[in-house]
Design goal:
Strand order of the largest sheet: 1-6-5-2-3-4
Strand content: 5-15%
Low-confidence stretches: 212-221
Number of strands: 6
Shape: elongated
Largest sheet: 6 strands, mixed
Structural class: alpha/beta
Amino acid sequence: MELPRSMEDDFLYWKYHPSGKFTVKTGYYFLTKRQRAEHLDLSLEEHSFVKLIWKLKILPKWKIFLWKLFHDRIVVKRNLAKRGIQVEETCVFCGEDEEDSQHLFRLCNLAKEVWENGSLAICSDSTGFDSLREWIQYYILLFYSEDGKYGTRSTKFIATLWGLWKMRNARSFNGANGGIDLALEFVNLAMREQETFCQNIRESMENRDNSREDSYPPPPGFNSVQLGKDRSGFDDFIVGVDGSWDKRTTRAGIGWVAMGGNNENEVSEGGKYGVATSALHCEAWACLEAMKWAKEKGRQGILILLDSIMLINNLHDQSGKDILISWIAKEIREVGALFQWCTILKVQRDQIQRADEIARKCRTSLSNYM
């Protein structure tokens, strides 16, 4: 985190998320990153597949179910026995073989019937797959690549897995009886539940789009923030700013170019070099220095042009969105409040080309430019 330029009170924050706020989601992500052992046995292709699972437009409980299947964490009898739980390990359907994930979802006679009689017509005991993980990955990737993200075959495949699991639990805990007809009924029920889920998503998106239309958002490309005493209008003193940052060395350069004002022929520019914690930090520093420079020149208003939408978003929120630039964002707001008009506007990169050139020169030459 950056160091404040003035005396500020310390505070606690969660450094593993830009907001600085801890949530169960960010804590879980941090722990999974730490637990390397679980991921070492996954290839790059398998990592990509796991990411795909979380992106699929399916029921959230199906995603968790698939993740457990992929890592063999589903509570079939074999896995329960491994945990020291005394349980009869034979399959609830055939009563002959041991109930592990591979058997329950692929090799059991009932499972084979369900797959063969379903709309996908899959031969589940086909050779070439050493594990259930490989088998699931093969078919989901196949259907996804051929049908795209809006295809139904991958959804049907997952629904069949879910239907087999629901029937197994119904027989184990509720004493349900039945064969392939009951299993297919569970699969169809799963598909109806998925359709309802998708319909709810579509309705939610439509309602959100309607609310956006009613709120009259600014036109595309018009992203700005007002920090001056007068929150309407623009000043004619225009300053383009930009930063240049090297991630490896943390060296940073900033540049600004001012044009306009009372004298249309007036052109002033400058730049500095130093260090920054991130590209965003570098952009914020460039913005702040340009504002200070303009204030020293006696300007009562300023229009700053930059190409960082992330900085604009941080300055819109008083608490900021990235904790790592909280101090400098606070200082930008304080300096901006000294102007009668102070507007920071997001523009295309080519509009601040000269500021970018100055910033790069300051960073590479390790010298200020005034």
